[in-house]
Write a structure and sequence with these properties.
Helix content: 25-40%
Strand order of the largest sheet: 10-11-9-12-13-8-14
Number of strands: 20
Largest sheet: 7 strands, parallel
Number of helices: 11
Distance between the termini: 50 Å
């Protein structure tokens, strides 16, 4: 359990005299505040005092308290991971890569072998998972440990079976809140970025998927966790479809090593978002109705047996819209981040048992469903940034058998983010066409 981990002393059960075990004080003074060695927090207001049976009063870290209380008399315990057995041919995959995928795959292998940092900027649906296979195999053959970190549980749950299938003789574990694998070690780990807080100098290769996504982009704790989880000499691979403006400038100036893939593996253009005015849609929802244009769009696709995602900006809109859909006898469910049945509902949607899924941005990334049609109701809402809208559009046309589909942004007024998202997609299609990626 402890190998490669950094845990609180009371969380483990090992011989205390094991010479490989390392101990350190969990909270240390830093100026007029403290530094939490587990999560890297040094913000004064994120520390507080609590009664302690050992000390009388202790300071504790509020930032990472959801993973167990770290206080000034706590001890963090870590132990280097043991060597892995030799793996001769761990990858069992008979697929072929597109030209763009092969370029990215080769770049990842080089980064793995040379322990370098590299960015893969690939459009949604480019087949990023398949690009990773050769790099993961190269690492496993060198008896190295690999972690793929993703921002959301949904992405972890989608990646786990795919990687276990192509690495059938490798133990692959998925780590997220209350995961059944959370006390296990394995050569190949797929985890939410929060779970990296439990690791210390464990991984030879760390792959961060959707590096631009919330909460990784706004929470320095997660970036600290990523730095602590990998070995000091380790490869770091970033994957994204929507890099930040800073990273784009660094790529153009040559300051950041990157491979750009502007076409999907099936060599068809990315579907462009359509802007459709829907009037005062909030007023309609308050009256228990759907805007007619939205209603007609949904019913047309359901009639033709096409699955539909309807994105909304707030959790409070989900159930009213589900109720509206059911008035028209449409098989509909709603999901959001705090929905305890989210996993089961998405599984039912995949099976075709649910025709329409009303969702917050929780499903904007990492979900692949054949022939999916997507709409956003209230695309002018601030949460629908350029990046979010590009990702939402990227849910459509991912399957080679259904490379096209609708991406409709229903709005009560166009925004700069909407226009920027469409320009972004047009730019990638233009680049792919100029490079001869389209058939």
């Amino acid at each position: 359990m402890l190998q490669g981990r950094r845990l609180l002393l009371h969380e483990i059960d090992i011989p205390l005299k094991d010479e490989r075990v390392q101990y350190e004080t969990a909270l240390v003074p830093k100026g007029k505040s403290y530094l939490c060695k587990r999560c890297g927090n040094d913000t004064p207001y994120l520390f507080a005092q609590t009664p302690c049976v050992r000390c009388g009063v202790c300071v504790y870290c509020r930032k990472c308290i959801m993973m167990g209380r770290v206080q000034s008399c706590s001890t963090l315990v870590s132990m280097p991971p043991e060597p892995l057995p030799i793996q001769h041919k761990p990858l069992h995959w008979n697929g072929t890569l597109s030209t763009g995928q092969q370029q990215a795959s080769d770049a990842i292998v080089r980064a793995v072998l040379e322990k370098k940092e590299h960015l893969i900027w690939a459009v949604c649906g480019a087949g990023k998972t398949e690009m990773l296979f050769a790099g993961i195999e190269a690492a496993l053959q060198r008896r190295e440990r690999v972690c793929i970190a993703a921002p959301r549980t949904d992405v972890v749950l989608e990646l786990h079976p795919r990687l276990q299938q192509v690495f059938p003789h490798i133990d692959v574990i998925a780590l997220y809140g209350n995961s059944p694998d959370r006390y296990r070690n394995a050569p190949l780990v797929i985890a939410t970025t929060h779970q990296l807080l439990r690791y210390y100098r464990a991984f030879d290769i760390l792959i961060i998927d959707e590096v631009d996504a919330f909460p990784y982009t706004v929470d320095k704790t997660l970036r600290y966790a990523a730095e602590q989880a990998r070995k000091q000499q380790a490869a770091l691979i970033h994957l994204t479809a929507t890099p930040s403006k800073l990273w784009k400038r660094e790529i153009r100036s040559g300051k950041r090593s990157a491979t750009i893939i502007s076409a999907r593996y099936h060599r068809q253009p990315l579907p462009l978002p359509m802007f459709v005015w829907s009037g005062n849609w909030k007023s309609h929802i308050e009256k228990g109705r759907l805007p007619t244009v939205v209603q007609n769009w949904v019913r047309t696709h359901v009639k033709n047996k096409r699955p539909v995602f309807l994105f909304v900006s707030k959790v409070s809109y989900v159930q009213p819209l589900v109720a509206c859909m059911k008035q028209f006898h449409l098989s509909t469910e709603g999901v959001h981040a705090e929905d305890p049945n989210r996993k089961e509902k998405v599984a039912s949607f995949r099976k075709g048992e649910i025709a329409v899924l009303v969702t917050t941005t929780i499903l904007e990334r990492g979900v692949t469903i054949a022939n999916l049609q997507v709409a956003v109701l209230g695309a002018e809402e601030p949460i629908f940034t350029e990046s979010a809208l590009v990702q939402i559009a990227g849910r459509v046309g991912r399957n080679a058998s259904f490379p096209n589909g609708d991406v409709v942004l229903f709005h009560f007024g166009k925004t700069k983010a909407m226009l920027a998202a469409r320009r972004h997609i047009q730019s990638m299609n233009r680049d792919a066409r100029q490079n001869g990626y389209f058939e």
